[in-house]
Specification:
22% strand, 2 domains, alpha/beta, Rossmann fold, 7-stranded mixed β-sheet, globular, Class I SAM-dependent methyltransferase, transferase
């Protein structure tokens, strides 16, 4: 499915009927051949924006998967780059694919993003395409964790796309996917949390502010604007102040 190197429909079904962790362990060897991987166009646009904000010392890729964002961090960080994910399978693929020689140093850590095993050691935290795996009620804790691992003045940066319009096919496709996922999780355990319509710009900005960040956003060039003039893709730049990190 997707390409000759991608997963089959049967493999995707087995993944969807597993837990999030087990599902991604199974999908990991073929993950980069699916549309679920963050597109290079998005990675490149974020990298260019980070260059205007950096350079940075130590970077963390939150929910790094197979490491698509690690090469972005390696470009803008001088000290070290760390990828954290709770799927051992995704981390194993990342270790094979991302160069770890030279500078900056590269490390891979298996951990839950909701309970990070780090102190305030990073100058930059990024995340790409992972937030659909967290329920809205989990955002305060997730953002508090990102805040807690940043040094004063550190940035938490990630792209967020504009929701599709109700008159588009994508709107109804994503609505249908989320509805099917809710039915699946209502009748089967463990749940597989993956929702495309729960990570909303207004909610994200509010919860980041509550976590102690100063939040700004900028349009990512190259993705254009919607008919109402709003950008199709934004970059959220949340800066940690000098106060005590949130737990």
């Amino acid at each position: 499915m997707f390409s000759q190197h991608g997963p089959s429909l049967r493999e995707l079904a087995v993944q969807a009927l597993s837990s999030v962790e087990r599902g991604y362990d199974l999908l990991a060897p073929k993950f980069d051949h699916t549309p679920f991987r963050t597109p290079d166009s998005v990675l490149g646009a974020v990298e260019e924006e980070l260059k205007t904000l950096g350079p940075f010392g130590h970077g963390l890729d939150l929910c790094c998967g197979t490491g698509a964002g690690m090469d972005v961090l390696r470009t803008v960080c001088r000290g070290s780059v760390t990828g954290v994910d709770f799927s051992a399978g995704m981390l194993a693929v990342g270790r094979e694919q991302v160069r770890s020689d030279g500078s900056p140093r590269v490390a891979w850590v298996r951990a839950d993003a909701r309970a990070l095993p780090f102190g305030p050691a990073f100058d930059l935290v990024v995340s790409f395409g992972a937030f659909g795996h967290f329920l809205p009620r989990e955002l305060p804790g997730l953002f508090a964790q990102a805040h807690s691992v940043l040094r004063p003045g550190g940035r938490f940066v990630f792209p967020i796309g504009a929701p599709p319009r109700p008159d588009s096919a994508w709107y109804w496709a994503l609505l249908g996917f989320d509805a099917a996922m809710r039915v699946r999780n209502a009748v089967r355990r463990p749940p597989f949390v993956m929702y495309y319509r729960t990570f909303r710009f207004g909610d994200v900005r509010r919860e980041l502010t509550r976590a102690g960040f100063t939040v700004e956003h900028r349009a990512l060039p190259g993705f254009g604007r919607r008919p109402d003039g709003s950008p199709r893709c934004r970059l959220i730049v949340a800066t940690r102040g000098s106060g005590t990190p949130r737990a």
